[in-house]
Amino acid sequence: MTALRARVVGDGVADLGSLGPAWRELDRHSAPNVFLTFEWVSSWWHSLAGEHTPYVVVVEDERGAIVGIAPLLRSLARVSGLGTATTLQFMGHPQADRLGFLARSGHEADVADAVASSLRERTDWDVLRLSDLPSGSPELASLTRAFRGDHIVLVEPGLACPYLPIEGTWDAYLRTRQKRFRVGLRHDQRRVREELAGQMTACLDPEHAKRALEFMFEHNAARFAVGDTTLSGFADPRVRAFHLELAPRMLEERRLDLSVIELDGTIVAVDYGFRHGGKIWGYNAAFDARYEPYGLGRVLLGWVIERAFSEGVDEYDFLLGDYAYKRRWAAQTRHHREVLVVRRRPPAIVKAALPAWWNRLKHAVKRAVPQEVMNTVRRRLLHRKG
Predict the structure, then answer these.
(1) Domain spans of the chain?
(2) Could you read off the pLDDT of 37-57 as tens digits, one per residue?
(3) Are 120 and 146 in contact (CB under 8 A)?
(4) Checking DSSP bridges between strand 152-165 and strand 279-287, what pairing results, if any?
């Protein structure tokens, strides 16, 4: 490919709408990532951008055709006694599970180089924090190469993402799973079908999808409630608004994969995902805790994956988090990385580099010091505080 030109689109497209047609066209010719679709990014921006400003790097070829988009945003923070530090990060974080640059297929490395080169030349940012980049991605390679030397560059490990290639038949796949898993799944399926008369259906209209999402918000937040705080992002009304805006748009594009178990028309379990590029992206799930002994979550997920085998799906991606229940289903695992680039300015170093170094030191100490020693130190510190 000939030389590419990168430019930054900022405050003038606060709603991103002007980029929509070109963004959708590029998406049709790029490696699939549901978190980089225009529907996902623009819905996120509308609901969750807050005081941030857009900082979208658009990459064009010599004819002016858009061949790459890096959906970034900019935020400004004061650093006590040192001034301000401007941070660039991905739009969509932390609700998106896999991020990067949207690039025309076959030109991913060229687009990544163009974005990295453009960012290096600009002086309107201090910290570049890009999370959830797949290991071995062109973005990761280009960014670390472009900034190493006169910038502080840290590459941190991210979470693992189990996934299941969909090959052969459902029955053949089940035979690859442990016997205890197979027997337990069939037992739960039978109980849900015979004892509860549960009905499993896909949400194919906006109202049904809305009811399913509202159930998920309520039961997911209740499940993770800890004191006065929650571990569930769905406790935030802005996050709920984002998904309520996103779901009908994805449904219209035939990219929503939202399934439920119902008892006499009452939803008792939800599996929330998306379909894009021949894959199912399994995003979240929830179930009514009163029916926990019936294994509703496992039964519904099994129904979704069984359908995938018969509907031409290539892969089920479990996304972020190497949890035990995912490993029971998945066959392989991807890994993510976060790249942190810090300009050698005191506000930027204090804002981003020092916390990253401190975290590295803490992890190194945990690995090096025996757990018994750490426990003794904690007890003595607590005794002194008491």
Answers:
(1) 5-159+335-368, 167-313
(2) 999 999 999 999 888 999 999
(3) yes
(4) unpaired
Q: Are 66 and 26 in contact (CB under 8 A)?
A: yes
Identify the DSSP state of 321.
Answer: -
Give the whole-angstrom CA distance, residue 80 versus residue 78. Answer: 6
Name, in order, each residue with C-beta under 8 angstroms of 144's C-beta and a sequence gap of 6 or more.
153, 155, 339
> In CATH terms, are 5-159+335-368 and 167-313 the same topology?
yes
Strands 315-317 and 279-287, bridge-based pairing: parallel
Question: Is the pLDDT assigned to residue 222 strictly greater than 80?
Answer: no
Looking at per-residue pLDDT, the higher value among 93 and 212 belongs to 212
Phi, psi dihedral angles at 341 (to 5 degrees): -115, 125
Q: What is the pLDDT of residues 297-312, one digit of tens each?
A: 999 999 999 999 999 9
Encoded tokens for 195: 């004892």
Task: Give the CATH superfamily of 167-313.
Answer: Gcn5-related N-acetyltransferase (GNAT) (3.40.630.30)
Closest CA to 211 of 157, 185, 248, 174: 248
Instruction: Based on DSSP, count helices (H) and strands (E) in the chain, helices before strands.
Output: 13, 15
pTM of the model: 0.90
The answer to whether 47 touches 241, Cβ cutoff 8 Å, is yes
List the one residue out of 115, 33, 120, 57 whose CA is nearest residue 336.
Answer: 33
Q: Does domain 5-159+335-368 have CATH number 3.40.630.30?
A: yes
What radius of gyration, in Å, describes the C-alpha atoms of the chain? 23
- CA nearest 208: which of 259, 264, 284, 269? 259
State which H helix or E strand residue 119 sits in. Answer: helix 108-121
Question: Backbone dihedral region of 168: left (phi > 0), alpha (psi from -120 to 50 degrees) or beta?
Answer: left
Strands (DSSP E) found in 292-377: 315-317, 332-342
Separation CA 363–CA 164 (nearest Å) = 31
Between CA 225 and CA 93, with CA 247 as vertex, the angle to 5 degrees is 60
Single out the residue of 144, 94, 161, 139 nearest to residue 335, CA to CA.
161
In the numeric block, which tokens belong to residue 56? 């979208």
CB crowding 281-294: b at 16 or more within 10 Å, else e: bbbbbbbbeebeeb
Closest listed residue to residue 133, CA positions, set 174, 181, 92: 92
Q: What is the pLDDT of residues 86-126, one digit of tens each?
A: 999 999 999 999 999 999 999 999 999 999 999 999 999 99
Element (H, E) at 267: strand 266-276
